[in-house]
């Protein structure tokens, strides 16, 4: 806790409000508004008092119990089941704090995050209740504080019990689903509580219905004015080509106050002065700060498309000679349009994002909460994940609707790194109640969150929910036909009449989509729920198929925008080891089954893998287990690669009305615990093979190879560059049995226009093989890359298997050796291979860090990789930890 003992001197002042990139400060002469943090060590007890412990705020019950040694790691083995009792009990947080009355007229008690259902009392007086984890709550406490000691209590109700009581109290048609599928081992009725929806379990995550004060608690004291919130959005006037910054101030006034407000963007010589009057209570005021037509405004661009310049916005409020408001913020200028217009050659509509007037292909993945307990998502964890996203050439993340509106640092880091954010509202895979109190709390949630996040240039679109349009349209919940209109009505009430209207009022600078997937404008035409929200002719799609062969690209929808698709894999052994014991290291054992929350998931992975790879079958059980983890990662990496490459090469084509694909976000970036999932990054930050593959398949310039219906091998040159490129494809054929190439072919030179995908090489496979020393599909494989002038390689190398590697003829054990060296500050690993090796995987166990490349095809005899360590390590440690596996090694 920041405040203890003698008050005055210990009271922490400043930073009264933080909005995104803003640092806002209010001061009023001698009597500055002050913020006193009540964070720190509180007391925590369960309902019958049998458990009493110290608990950190911000924090939660589970974290506190673990930190104080009352429970083990909740992620260990089957502990999610063992610790179910925690969320079934009620818990009370208590703190005492000193206070001394100054001249301050008003004191507010502010809670930045309460999870979720609580009653809050101060010195025995109930201040109010909370029911929504996504809202900030504040209470006036001016007359309730005592000089000396004050007692603050936050009593939490079990979220599980609350949800079930709300369900019981609900009159009218049921609000499905009642419970998650058994395989998820979760709790029921999560849609009745405004809480992180995945916290009652998901198909990749455990059930840990958290409880606690997961963000800070503070007292705000002020005489005159308190700036609750400030935000700024740049609005572009296309006809005059000028910018206006909409500055929004939410000010609480203790008394009527007239202030001369001055807002300025010094770097752009823009300034606005207005006389403003704040009435007692909350005042929301919006101002238009015009940037002169002559000003040269530098824009914010997504990663790889340009720089990101931010301008300082200064807001000052003068009352007579007193400075009563002083706030600073950063303004980033960029426009975003979601283009849905007729497309030549199609009956549907386009669906793509235009940023600063330029169509941009969105490349990335879906973000889920990084931990079951938000208090454990540290800045280091967050930054590492976001850096890993850009290191894999992503320019977008979708903050998926079953998690949380992320913390400030998430968005400010995305602003900085140039990661666009597709921001869902927190509703997922369910129907929701529309009782007035539910709507009311959601309305407040939406207003607060949009105000909090709208200054971030990274946020490019708001979206109302995850898959609820699809759930309704394709009848996930078996709703009787006679009741369907009622559910449609409720859907429109919540997402359109309330959320959409509010978001558009709060933020005119961004598009709003009601759902994902959706047909967008077409869904709207059909009354907001389209007959088929997965229609590839409109909007975005989610597509999963575990039974189709993922090497067969004809199975993928040629969609306008792929916002979800994916395949599962297992994390590495080093992730599983700390949360398991020896008897768990068995793919068909109870631990493996327990951690798999997607029905038949473990089987599906093996079935998909077996289509093209031999399944591990060592005589040593542990070896078989670790080899199986490896083969699931190989399968996943290859499947998602092929699907993503299909989407990227479809950007410039319309075939049978489909195509013009402008987005590929696979499911899912990160993990919440150590378990099989669709993620490309394990819990703990280690990259799976898929994440290394993403580095290549999301590269700005990429050669994509595939076999066309007519039996030709085709290379498509994909370019996200803003300028055209003169390129040539270089196609080299190898035998599996030799590290010397068989033949090399070069395409004609081709001008690849900016932002396009064009065929650069096409040759019938039969002719190609025949011409290469009578290669066959089984004896040979194709590698290829693009070259610009001076034989300079553009983009990564790529390859194409002509047959399944399981049937490859000539593939030998490569007996790869690895030598770790220190080169200057860097650690490198040099591999020596005796044969062509596929899916070469370097694993350094629990040493945190990543290689510059991994999971690759090795046709060379030697290759040197760099290892970036995320903590200090040594040649000796890496040498002791490194293990190299390739496809031929697992059978
Ligand atoms: C989707 C997501 C998640 C889910 C994933 C994998 O459709 O929106 O709900 O975890 O698929 O099944």
List the total number of helices. Answer: 18
Radius of gyration: 29 Å
Bound molecules: beta-D-mannopyranose
Helix content range of the residues, please?
10-25%
DSSP E strands, number: 51
Global mean pLDDT: 95
Q: For the report, how would you describe the main beta sheet?
A: 6 strands, antiparallel
What is the SS-derived class?
Answer: alpha+beta
The end-to-end span amounts to 57 Å
- For the largest sheet, list the strands in their spatial order: 1-2-23-22-19-20
> In terms of per-residue confidence, which ranges show pLDDT below 50 for 5 or more consecutive residues?
1-31
Oligomer: single chain
What share of the residues does DSSP label as strand, in percent? Answer: 25-35%
User: What's the shape?
Assistant: globular
Show the helix and strand layout.
Layout: H1 7-10, E1 17-19, E2 22-25, E3 34-37, E4 40-46, E5 52-57, H2 61-67, H3 79-82, H4 84-88, E6 91-99, E7 106-111, E8 114-115, E9 118-122, E10 125-130, E11 137-140, E12 148-156, H5 159-169, E13 200-202, E14 205-207, E15 212-213, E16 217-222, E17 225-237, E18 242-253, E19 257-265, E20 270-278, E21 281-291, E22 310-319, E23 322-332, E24 336-339, E25 352-355, E26 358-360, E27 362-367, H6 379-391, E28 396-399, H7 408-417, E29 420-424, H8 436-453, E30 459-463, H9 468-473, H10 484-506, E31 512-513, H11 521-525, E32 541-543, E33 562-565, H12 573-576, H13 590-595, H14 601-610, H15 621-649, E34 654-655, E35 658-659, E36 663-666, H16 689-697, E37 701-707, E38 712-719, E39 725-735, E40 741-746, E41 750-752, E42 756-764, H17 765-771, E43 780-787, E44 793-801, E45 817-823, E46 826-832, E47 837-843, E48 849-851, E49 856-858, E50 862-869, H18 875-881, E51 883-885
Parallel strand pairs: 27-28, 27-36, 28-29, 29-30, 30-31, 32-33
Antiparallel strand pairs: 1-2, 2-23, 3-16, 4-5, 4-6, 6-12, 7-11, 7-16, 8-15, 9-10, 9-12, 13-14, 17-18, 18-21, 19-20, 19-22, 22-23, 24-25, 25-26, 34-35, 37-38, 38-42, 39-40, 39-41, 39-43, 43-44, 45-46, 46-50, 47-49, 47-51, 48-50
Helix pairs in contact: 6-7, 8-10, 14-15, 15-16
Bound molecules: beta-D-mannopyranose (BMA).
């Amino acid at each position: 806790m920041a405040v203890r003992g003698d008050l005055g001197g210990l009271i922490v002042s400043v930073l009264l409000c933080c909005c995104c990139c803003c640092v806002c400060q209010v001061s009023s002469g001698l009597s500055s508004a002050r913020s006193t943090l009540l964070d720190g060590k509180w007391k925590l007890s369960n309902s019958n008092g049998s458990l009493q412990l110290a608990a950190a705020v911000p924090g939660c019950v589970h974290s506190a119990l673990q930190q104080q040694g009352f429970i083990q790691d909740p992620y260990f083995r089957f502990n999610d089941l063992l610790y179910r009792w925690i969320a079934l009990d009620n818990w009370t947080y208590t703190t005492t704090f000193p206070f001394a009355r100054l001249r301050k007229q008003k004191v507010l008690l502010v809670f930045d995050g309460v999870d979720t259902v609580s009653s809050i009392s101060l010195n025995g007086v109930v201040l109010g209740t909370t029911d929504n984890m996504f809202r900030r709550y504040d209470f006036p406490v001016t007359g309730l504080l005592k000089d000396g000691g004050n007692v603050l209590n936050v009593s939490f109700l079990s979220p599980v019990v609350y949800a079930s009581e709300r369900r019981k109290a609900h009159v009218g048609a049921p609000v499905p689903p009642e419970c998650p599928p058994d395989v998820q081992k979760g709790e029921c009725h999560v849609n009745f509580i405004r809480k992180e929806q995945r916290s009652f379990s998901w198909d990749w995550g455990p059930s840990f219905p958290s409880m606690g004060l997961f963000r800070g608690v503070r007292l705000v004291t002020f005489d005159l004015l308190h700036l609750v919130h400030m935000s700024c959005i740049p609005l572009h006037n296309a006809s005059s080509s000028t910018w206006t910054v909409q500055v929004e101030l939410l000010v609480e006034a203790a008394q009527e106050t007239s202030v001369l407000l001055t807002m300025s963007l010094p770097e752009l010589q823009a300034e606005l002065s207005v006389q403003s009057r704040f009435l007692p209570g909350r005042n929301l005021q919006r101002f238009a700060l015009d940037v002169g037509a002559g000003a040269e405004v530098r824009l914010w661009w997504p990663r790889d498309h340009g720089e990101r310049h931010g301008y300082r916005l200064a807001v000052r409020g003068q009352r007579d000679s007193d400075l009563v408001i002083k706030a600073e913020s950063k303004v980033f200028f960029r426009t975003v349009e979601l283009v849905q217009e007729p497309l030549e050659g199609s009956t549907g509509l386009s669906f793509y994002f235009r940023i600063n007037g330029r169509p941009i292909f969105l490349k990335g993945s879906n973000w889920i909460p990084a931990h079951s307990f938000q208090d454990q998502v540290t800045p280091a964890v967050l930054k590492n994940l976001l850096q890993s996203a850009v290191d894999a050439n992503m320019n977008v993340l979708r903050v998926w609707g079953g998690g949380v509106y992320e913390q400030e640092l998430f968005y400010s880091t995305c602003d900085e790194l140039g990661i666009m954010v597709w921001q869902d509202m927190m509703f997922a895979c369910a129907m929701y109640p529309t009782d007035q109190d539910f709507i009311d709390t959601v309305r407040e949630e939406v207003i607060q969150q949009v105000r909090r996040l709208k200054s971030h240039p990274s946020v490019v679109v708001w979206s109302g929910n995850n898959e609820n349009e699809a759930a309704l349209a394709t009848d996930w919940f078996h709703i009787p036909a006679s009741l369907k209109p009622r559910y449609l009505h409720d859907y429109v009430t919540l997402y359109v009449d309330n959320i959409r209207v509010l978001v558009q009022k709060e933020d005119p600078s961004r598009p709003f989509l009601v759902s994902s997937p959706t047909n967008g404008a077409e869904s709207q035409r059909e009354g907001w729920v389209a007959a088929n929200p997965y229609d590839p002719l409109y909007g975005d799609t989610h597509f999963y198929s575990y039974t189709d062969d993922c090497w067969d690209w004809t199975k993928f929808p040629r969609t306008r925008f792929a916002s979800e698709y994916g395949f599962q894999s297992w994390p590495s052994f080093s992730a599983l080891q700390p949360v398991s014991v020896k008897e768990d290291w068995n793919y068909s054992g109870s631990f493996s089954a327990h951690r798999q929350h997607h029905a038949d998931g473990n089987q599906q992975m093996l079935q998909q893998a077996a289509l093209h790879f031999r399944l591990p079958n060592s005589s040593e059980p542990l070896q078989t287990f670790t080899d199986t983890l490896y083969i699931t990662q190989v399968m996943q990496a290859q499947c998602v690669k092929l699907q993503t490459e299909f989407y990227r090469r479809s950007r410039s084509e319309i075939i049978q009305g489909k195509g013009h694909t402008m987005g590929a976000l696979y499911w899912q970036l990160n993990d919440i615990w150590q378990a099989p999932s669709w993620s490309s990054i394990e819990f703990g930050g280690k990259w799976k093979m898929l994440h290394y593959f993403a580095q290549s398949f999301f590269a700005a310039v990429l050669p994509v190879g595939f076999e066309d219906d007519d039996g030709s091998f085709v290379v498509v040159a994909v370019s996200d560059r803003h300028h055209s490129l003169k390129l040539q494809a270089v196609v080299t054929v190898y035998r599996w049995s030799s590290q010397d190439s068989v033949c090399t072919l070069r395409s004609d030179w081709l001008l690849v226009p900016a932002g396009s995908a064009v065929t650069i090489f096409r040759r019938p496979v039969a002719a190609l093989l025949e011409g290469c020393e009578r290669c066959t599909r089984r004896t040979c494989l194709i590698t290829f890359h693009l070259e610009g002038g001076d034989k300079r390689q553009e983009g990564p190398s790529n390859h194409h298997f002509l047959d399944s590697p399981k049937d490859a003829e000539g593939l030998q054990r490569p007996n790869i050796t690895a030598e770790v060296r220190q080169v200057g500050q860097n650690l490198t690993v040099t591999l020596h291979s005796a044969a062509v090796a596929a899916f070469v995987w370097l694993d350094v166990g629990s040493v945190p860090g990543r290689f510059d490349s991994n999971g690759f095809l090795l046709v060379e005899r030697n290759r040197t990789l760099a290892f970036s360590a995320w903590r200090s390590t040594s040649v000796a440690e890496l040498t002791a930890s490194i293990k190299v596996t390739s496809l031929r090694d697992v059978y």
